[in-house]
Structure formats: C-alpha cells, structure tokens
Request: fold
Amino acid sequence: MNKVVTRQHVRASELPADLRGEIPPSALVTVTVSEEVTHDDRKDPIQLLKEYHQISDKPGVTSEEAVQRVRALRDEWDD
Reply:
C-alpha cells in the first residue's frame, strides 16, 4: 500500500536544494511524500483474497460439483 506523509508549514530552507528549486528559503511550504509501489512490492491477487476472506482453510467445491449445483437450480425453473 502507498504510504503518504504530509507536513505543513515547513521552511523551504529545510528542504534539499534540488527539491526547493526557486522557492525562497524563508517561504513556508507543504511537503507531501508518497511511497512508490514497485512490481516486487505487490502480492499475488489470489493470495490477497485468501488472506482477506480467510478462504484458504474453508473447503471448496470441484468444478463438477459446481456444475451439478447450477444444473439442479436451473432444472427447478424448468418445472
């Protein structure tokens, strides 16, 4: 996740020269820093879902079982 830090009323003189640019050293500035997310920082989406929903230890169904359930529900409507 991105982490954002914001500081208000910082003297421009406290900033490194390359960040300060043409801002006078006595000026008050607001500084916002956000962390960049690289590809290496991202988790597998399926793993995130498993962690969030804690489905990793719940029993699942096979494709065949799912198809049978759907067909049974569909057949109920055919009557």
Observations:
- The CA atoms of residues 12 and 19 lie 9 Å apart.
